[in-house]
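Page 37, continued from 36.
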């Protein structure tokens, strides 16, 4: 029969203490955390809506989880060096991704690089069993809320564009009323032969060829449309410029 020595008892007790320190709650038979990979969200997502309805703030100590309750406080500990931070859950991740996505500030405090994952352990601050939830109704409500906000933003942008167009139209009408009627056109080019002028005009819808005589020599000018108000001609000139055609305003 083997004899239990004092040194072997000491080693066994030391190992038990080590287990309790590394895995709190093990001695009571109750798991208090879970372990897996962590990463962090990039700064470029600043201001985007999270699943909880908050705007993502890269400087806040927050995180995204697949199934931890919103607003729960969780201790995140690096397995390799024991470094610890506390974060608040305010967003969701895909079930097949890492167990937690940290904000940029949380990732920096924990020493996780942007393009790497880190093995960590999650623990609730209360020290009780870490409870997870799978709330399809909550996710659906959040998604509907986000879609509603996006639609509101789109409608607001459409109203702004519509009001701007109305103001521009009113301004053009006011200019028309204040200006005497003119006979204007936009000259696109001048050519020595009718054929060259016609070929060029064929590429610009709304243009036409006008033969003129300058110092006894016949020329063929390519004009674009006719205008009675200079403001309308300037609008057309900008449109032609965007299409790659330079022009200048002249009287007929």
């Amino acid at each position: 029969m083997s004899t239990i020595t004092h040194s072997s008892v000491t080693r066994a007790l030391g190992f038990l203490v080590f287990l309790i320190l590394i895995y709190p709650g093990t001695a009571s038979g109750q798991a208090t955390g879970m372990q897996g990979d962590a990463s962090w969200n990039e700064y470029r997502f600043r201001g985007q809506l999270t699943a909880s309805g908050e705007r993502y703030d890269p400087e806040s100590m927050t995180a995204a989880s697949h199934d931890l309750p919103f607003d729960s406080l969780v201790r995140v500990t690096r397995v390799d060096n024991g470094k610890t931070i506390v974060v608040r859950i305010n967003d969701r991740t895909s079930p097949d991704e890492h167990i937690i996505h940290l904000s940029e500030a949380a990732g920096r405090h924990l020493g996780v690089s942007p393009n790497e994952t880190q093995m960590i352990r999650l623990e609730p601050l209360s020290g009780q069993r870490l409870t997870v939830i799978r709330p399809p109704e909550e996710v659906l409500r959040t998604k509907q809320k986000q879609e509603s906000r996006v639609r509101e933003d789109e409608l607001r942008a459409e109203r702004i564009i519509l009001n701007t167009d109305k103001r521009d139209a009113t301004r053009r009408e006011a200019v028309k009323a204040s200006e005497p009627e003119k006979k204007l056109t936009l000259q696109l080019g001048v050519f020595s032969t009718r054929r060259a002028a016609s070929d060029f005009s064929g590429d610009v819808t709304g243009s036409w060829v006008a033969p003129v005589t300058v110092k006894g020599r016949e020329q063929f000018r390519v004009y674009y449309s006719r205008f009675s108000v200079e403001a309308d001609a300037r609008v057309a000139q900008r449109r032609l410029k965007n299409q790659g055609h330079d022009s200048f305003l002249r009287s007929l």
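The domain at 28-144 is CATH 2.40.40.10 (Barwin-like endoglucanases). Flag for discussion at group meeting. Strands lie at 34-40, 62-64, 73-78, 84-91, 100-102, 118-124, 184-191, 207-214, 217-227, 248-251.
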